[in-house]
Write a structure and sequence with these properties.
The complex is a heterodimer of chains A (about 60) and B (about 725).
Chain A (H helix, E strand, L loop, with lengths): L2 H26 L30
Chain B lengths: L1 E7 L5 H9 L16 E7 L2 E7 L11 H10 L11 E7 L3 H11 L6 E6 L1 H6 L3 E2 L1 H8 L3 E3 L8 H14 L10 H14 L5 H9 L4 H10 L1 H16 L6 H18 E2 L8 H9 L4 H20 L1 H21 L4 H18 L2 H16 L2 H15 L7 H6 L4 H6 L7 H10 L9 H11 L8 H26 L21 H35 L10 H24 L6 H7 L1 H12 L1 H13 L6 H9 L6 H9 L13 H10 L8 H14 L4 H11 L3 H31 L1
Parallel strand pairs in B: 1-3, 1-4, 4-5, 5-7
Antiparallel strand pairs in B: 2-3, 6-8
Classes of the chains: A mainly alpha (about 60), B mainly alpha (about 725).
Chain lengths: ~60, ~725
């Protein structure tokens, strides 16, 4: 296998892993993010901190 | 360290004051509801470190919506992650002091020192209003500091007043409620227990159907509901009905104070804001000006960005060429040159359009025009069961649906908020802009009237603006039945937008666009390139890359021979023409034989009614996670940089060239281009938007519903557009 092919396979693996991580973080992450979808943080809101009263939404 | 909470009515200038004190650059807008979550900054005053918290704007501490509850939560020290503020800094508009003091009187009941900052003193002076601040301070029982936050005037005095208030810890009393009311509060306090703050017990009694009532009734059950109803009945019988007793008591206390401390001219002078509003909020002229402005924005996006766009294209081509000339043929060279540089570059070239769009949005928001647009749209929105309050989130969605959906938190009613959330993704966001520009540039620009590109771009944006209220109407009559809400909105005075504010907004949008191109789009392009590259050899095991290299050499020779023959007006033999076209033939076969090509060809019958081939269809499917991917993928499948003729470089020309050879896309290029644009305009191709709908609705059902209805609409819309366009093209 030539060097170019090895480099390409490595880049594809990294890209696939990055997209997988970004998708996971968007839907399941715990850190609050702006939701721009860049994959650096989650879109989902953080769970309410302990001791805080949870109020129902209208 | 001291903690100071900044509280005020919407559009009182809280975020401007926050930025001026903390030196931060939180976004400000000349309309209400810009801050929907609290923000934190720091400043130092006389050596003391102060943490400043900017809360969402609210007219009252009677929390009815989630954003208003954030303010109440924090002020009462019920957010464990934030300490209870040492001082509450109330900000009020000097031109509307009596109304803004209503909130201040509620803040006085929190049991914390309060400092009042009277903002926009220049606007008050322009209206002939004079305020005796010493008298005002004496009457209210709290320190009062005049400021002009946008110019940074009075900030030092304000800092000193905050420090002094924290040190003194003096509490003001505020208005006294009738004795009968206080008796009922004590009765309810016994029912809910001492752990509920007294302030919330008062809100329980005063806010009919509010947050506090729902929470406490759920916690204490039916007994409390009956107690509450009995208390309210007794108050009504004694001439103190809720909620009227609150307004009566507070305004009854505020009015004499205003009379003593504020002097107004006998006749209110007519300001420029009044003059402009007579035209800009006029039913007919206002609507015409709104439409005209929008057209101007879209026409400018198309033409102003063109020179910069061409610069980026030439830079992108130079990089691709450099890679090709420096590296040996192989998969890595192809990935870098044809996948990453061409794919990501083709998205980045639309950066100038994004900057122009956000520049316009910043100007229109900051000058105060957006509030007028919301007022104008209220008529239309109310006919569809929504109000002008829904217009601001919809307008925010023109930039990006994610903040637009988050901005719906200012809508109190759950059904109205959900209806707005579900239609917000129909607004054409900035990610759709590259597709529009690409299609319009290729098929609706050259050789056509100069106004056409702007009109088509405007029409694409209007598609969302027209459909969104109609779908909201259907939702409000079916799944989300409910009364049409009443819309109350303050029309702020017109202000000159600042260059800093505009460039900050453009910079933020441009950076977000580039960051996305450098992360998700980059990774997507690598995967798409791989799906188009492999398998890289034909059925006989011969590498396509090797066959292509040989064919390109032979084609070069054939092209020279053809040129010589044509110069002597000698007929070119068919074999020679076939030789020259061989690289394109091998490339086409390679792409059709790739993983993506095979799947695309299998799905082609589904795309055919829309006028699309497998390449467009697969680009549309590949862009479901992020719609910008469609442009990058089309560049790859249409081999933009494979044409040596410089005049035909670029994706727009590649489209023209390829479609011209096609029996469907050749004669019907415009209907196909419009069909692609309509699909992109109506389809929800954005994982982040779906995730934020889930977050805001706390349900999987609503994102799924939005995705399904928008995908069905997109397919049917694209189908109708192509078929009607084809019919018209055939008829004429």
């Amino acid at each position: 296998m030539d060097g170019q092919l090895i480099a390409v396979i490595a880049m594809i693996a990294v890209a696939a892993a990055y997209l997988g991580r970004a998708t996971w973080k968007t839907w399941s992450g715990t850190k609050v993010g702006c939701g721009s979808g860049c994959g650096k943080c989650a879109t989902k809101s953080a769970p309410p901190p302990k001791g805080r009263f949870e109020l129902p939404q209208v | 360290m001291l903690t100071v909470a900044l509280v005020g009515n919407p559009n009182a200038g809280k975020t401007t004051l926050f930025n001026a004190l903390s030196g931060l650059r939180q976004r400000v807008g000349n309309y209400s509801g810009v801050t929907v979550e609290m923000k934190k900054g720091h400043f130092t005053a006389n050596g003391t470190e102060v943490a400043l918290i900017d809360l969402p704007g609210t007219y009252s501490l009677a929390a009815r919506s989630p954003d208003e509850m954030v303010a109440v939560d924090l002020l009462l020290g019920r957010r464990p992650e934030e300490p209870r503020p040492d001082v509450v800094l109330s900000i009020a508009d000097a031109t509307n002091l009596d109304r803004h003091l209503y909130l201040t009187t509620q803040l006085l009941e929190l049991g914390e020192p309060v400092v009042l900052a009277v903002n926009m003193i220049d606007a008050a002076a322009a209206q002939g209003i004079t305020i005796d601040y010493a008298r005002l301070s004496q009457e209210l029982g709290i320190p009062v500091v005049p400021i002009q936050a946008n110019k940074g005037l009075g900030l030092e005095a304000l800092k000193s007043a905050v420090l002094a208030a924290a040190q003194a810890g003096k509490l003001a009393t505020g208005p006294a409620f009738p004795e009968t009311f206080e008796k009922e509060v004590s009765h309810l306090q016994n029912a809910v227990g001492a752990e509920v703050p007294g302030f919330l017990t008062r809100r329980l009694l005063l806010d009919v159907g509010g947050y506090t009532e729902q929470w406490l009734v759920e916690k204490h059950g039916e007994l409390l509901r009956r107690d509450l109803a009995d208390s309210r009945s007794r108050l009504a019988a004694e001439g103190c009905p809720v909620p009227a007793v609150e307004a009566r008591t507070r305004f009854g206390w505020i009015r004499p104070i205003i009379t003593a401390a504020v002097a107004r001219p006998a006749e209110r002078p007519v300001t420029w804001t009044d003059r402009l509003d007579r035209v800009l909020t006029h039913k007919l002229w206002g609507t015409l000006i709104f439409l005209g402005l929008m057209f101007l924005v879209f026409q400018s996006i198309f033409f102003w960005a063109k020179p910069v766009m061409e610069l980026i294209v030439s830079g992108q081509e130079a990089i691709a060429e450099a890679i090709k000339s420096e590296m040996a043929p192989g998969p890595l060279r192809s990935l870098l040159a044809d996948g990453i540089v061409v794919g990501v570059g083709s998205v980045v070239i639309f950066l100038p359009q994004i900057l122009v769009l956000f520049g316009f949005i910043a100007v229109l928001e900051d000058c105060g025009y957006m509030a007028r647009a919301a007022f104008l749209m209220d008529r239309l929105m109310s006919k569809c069961g929504l109000s002008g309050k829904s217009f601001i989130p919809l307008l925010s969605s023109v930039a990006c649906a994610v903040p637009g959906i988050m901005a719906t938190r200012v809508i109190e009613n759950r059904r109205d908020r959900f209806a707005t959330i579900l239609v917000a993704p129909l607004m054409s966001c900035s990610a759709r802009l590259p597709v529009y520009i690409l299609m319009i540039g290729a098929f609706l620009s050259e050789g056509r009237p100069a106004w056409l590109p702007g009109v088509v771009l405007f029409a694409m944006y209007m598609l969302g603006f027209t459909l969104a209220p109609l779908i909201a109407l259907v939702l409000k009559r079916t799944l989300l039945k409910g009364e049409t809400p009443v819309f109350v909105m303050e029309l702020p005075a017109y202000k000159r937008p600042t260059l800093r504010g505009i460039t900050q907004r453009m910079g933020d949008a441009g950076w977000a666009f580039l960051r996305r191109a450098g992360t998700v789009i980059f990774a997507s392009m690598v995967i798409i390139w791989a799906l188009l590259y492999f398998p890289s050899s034909d059925a006989n095991g011969v590498s396509y890359e090797d066959s292509l290299a040989v064919a390109e050499e032979r084609a070069e020779v054939a092209s020279l021979q053809i040129e010589a023959l044509e110069a002597h007006e000698i007929e070119v033999p068919e074999e020679l023409e076939a030789e020259a076209a061989l690289p394109a033939k091998i490339n086409g076969e390679w792409k059709r034989n790739s993983v993506l090509g095979r799947v695309g060809l299998a799905l082609e019958p589904a795309f055919a009614p829309l006028g699309w081939d497998w390449r467009i269809g697969m680009a549309a499917i590949a862009s479901f996670p992020a719609r910008e991917v469609i442009v990058g993928m089309l560049v790859m499948v249409y081999d933009v940089n494979d044409d040596d003729d410089e005049e035909h470089a670029g994706l727009q020309d590649a489209f023209k060239r390829e479609w011209a050879k096609d029996p469907v896309r050749g004669p019907y290029a415009v209907p196909v281009a419009l069909s692609i644009m309509v699909f992109i305009a109506l389809c929800l191709q954005c994982a982040s938007t779906l995730a934020v709908i889930y977050r805001e609705t706390h349900s999987w059902w609503w994102p799924l519903f939005t995705f399904v209805y928008m995908t069905v609409f997109a397919y049917l819309g694209a189908l109708l557009t192509f078929q009607i366009g084809k019919f018209i093209a055939d008829a004429f």
